Amino acid sequence: MIIFGLFSLSAIAQQDSTDADSVLLEQIRQEMQDGSEDEPDTGTQTAASANIRNPEISAIGDFRSLYTSDGGRNWDAFVQGVELNLSSAIDPYATAEFYPVFEGEGGELNAKIEEAYVQTLSLPFNLQLKAGKFRQAFGRINTVHRHALPVIDVPVAYENFFGEALIDQGVSLSWLIPNPDFYQELIVEATRGSDESPLFAFDEEEDTPQFLAHLKNFWDLSDNATLQLGFSGAFGKNENTLNSKVGGIDITYKWSPIRRNTYESFEWQTELYFSNVETSPGNDINSWGMYSWAQYQLSKRWFVTGLYSYSENPNLRDFDEQAISATFGWYATEFQKLEIGPKISTQNGFGDQTFSGLARWVFVIGSHGAHQY
Amino acid sequence: MKNLLTALFTILLMATAANAAKAQIKVVTTLPDLASITKQIGGEKVDVFSIAKGYQNPHFVDPKPSFIVKLSRADMFVTVGLDLEIGWAPSLLESSRNSDIQKGSPGYVDASEGISLLQVPSTVSREEGDIHAYGNPHYWLDPLRGKQIAKNIHDHLVAVSSENEAVFNKNLQAFNEKIDRKMEEWTRKMAPYKGTAIIAYHNEWVYFEKRFGLNIVAFLEPKPGIPPTPSQLGKVIQTIRSEDISVLINSPYFSSKSPEVVARNTDTEIVKLSTMTGGYEEIKTYFDLFDYNINRLVQAFKNQ
């Protein structure tokens, strides 16, 4: 810095001729040589060297309270989950991510690895390979961790078709299609069979992996607005060791005025799911479900989201369910949010309408995670 | 026959132009200031795209997939670093599948290399708000540090395209000479107001403040990244009254509500400055950024 400063001073000095300029020159020299201005940057070096040895680490807490008009006990408060994230570059060729989670169930926290995968950085032909256990690239919600969703409750359609989430172990290959006009990405995945999904299961008798494909299309409508349209499909064996197929369409519109993007934004997202599940040889069930939400950011900290979802059950005939809910979110900072919201749901198989009220407090400590778009 | 020859000649010209465009080094920068400096060092040899706009809060840029396409085709990526873009740049870079611009490659430029940093915290806690562990990252707001940015960009351009070294050397020299000339002009303009106390919305001006001898005594944000609160505005108003402060500076991407509350309760003038090239229409280059900000400030000080 000082060397550069002196270099610039010599250049200035050649042009200076008046007394006033000499005074000015002396002033600049003093400012540049003033030790109090430039604090030592040893802190940078310390932090940087620590970063090489340690991965980025963060912990996310999701604490909830629930009231429901259904059942004997109407109120509960519990830790929905504690999620850890460790991520780092392995070397110049790949990165690794680990998500150990403690999942709340019946007042207990059960440990499991939600995701653990390695991902390449520099394959040729715009390819990217991921291997391990990961959230599968089906639609929009499935790739997002629950605490990051703009709604407290996941849509009933998503829950009926994918349970907690479509997570499996295997490989995922993504190709950034060289389309000159708009963003297109094709992802194909081959996995062992996701045990926790209502649609799929690990087949212990035959070598039948589960396959998935997702085509993502993205357009910048303007500097402030974007549109995303996706098509997904997956097939594999179900718990009856028969075939299950599921298809999906997702559409997302986002508006966020660049100059005021921390104060005002709007997002509309809709997904449709279709499934065909063989329940016994010669018998199958065709089902569909959908959800649609719209979120509006009222101010820097306040968000409101409305959600409607309708769903049949992919494993049950003559069953449908629908729910409507609202989520009011207050984001203290990007590291902490409080959300509350009412929900009304009906299930034709179980008669009465259920009213519930949910609240959650989501918070993160540790390194700053990347925002998802 | 004549028409045919004209058509052939036109096609030949277009093909030549297309080849020339192809030969350009594709550079993607996070901020428009880095883009402006890259253009000045790279000249005709570079094709530069900035992800963030000059009137956008650089901490909060949406990582749109369309930026991934730009990065996948880039020969060079220039970032401010120091975690300024941590919420959006790393995920874009990771998704780009482009090994030429990954950290450690000649095409990856951390513009903060060799920059003398201010406000490097000895301990880091989010209790202090959204502070940066490596130091205040808004260093491009000091033109002399801009010379180090230019040197960093120059060195990587040479590494990526050594055949154009002579051009880059010449352009770097011209850039540095212009900074020196302009520094003289800017410092002279600001000299009468050395030590003048002012108020700012967010802690993003420290390099500008130190370079041009201003004295920012309070921020509207109670802590970096925390929106202004009534009690903080009350404190700021008290400070303005007790220290007879006349100027409050704000950036294009922050709300004007809180500054207006302060201005209504004091005799303060709100001066809208830009932290980045392109913040306002007339700020087309890195040099325009300082011309604009300094002229605005000088005018505001003269008005008092």
Q: Brief description of this entry?
A:
The complex is a heterodimer of chains A (373) and B (304). With 373 residues, chain A is mainly β. Chain A is built from 4 helices and 16 strands.
Architecture overview:
The complex is a heterodimer of chains A (373) and B (304). Chain A has two domains: 1-39, no CATH class; 111-366, Porin (Beta Barrel). Chain A is 13% helix and 54% strand. Chain A has helices at residues 2-15, 19-33, 42-53, 156-162, and strands spanning 56-68, 75-91, 94-105, 108-120, 127-135, 167-176, 183-191, 210-220, 225-237, 243-255, 265-280, 283-297, 302-312, 320-333, 336-347, 353-366. In chain A, a hairpin with a 2-residue loop joins strand 11 and strand 12. Chain B is of the alpha/beta class and 304 residues long. Chain B has ten helices and eight strands. Chain B has a four-stranded parallel beta sheet. A four-stranded parallel beta sheet of chain B has the order 6-5-7-8, with helices on both faces. Chain B starts with a helix and ends with a helix. Mean pLDDT of chain B is 91; it is low at 15-21. At the A-B interface, helix 1, helix 2, helix 3 and strand 8 of A face helix 3, helix 4, helix 5 and helix 6 of B.
As laid out across the biggest beta sheet of chain A, the strand order is 1-2-3-4-5-6-7-8-9-10-11-12-13-14-15-16
Percent in strands of chain A: over 45%
Secondary-structure element string of chain A: HHHEEEEEHEEEEEEEEEEE
CATH architecture annotation name of the largest domain in chain B: 3-Layer(aba) Sandwich
CATH superfamily membership of the largest domain in chain B: Nitrogenase molybdenum iron protein domain
CATH domain class of the largest domain in chain A: Mainly Beta
Q: Please give the alpha-carbon distance between the first and last residues of chain A.
A: 38 Å
State the helical fraction of chain A.
10-25%
List low-confidence stretches of chain B: 15-21
Number of domains of chain A: 2
Count the beta strands of chain A.
Answer: 16
Indicate the radius of gyration of chain A in whole angstroms.
26 Å
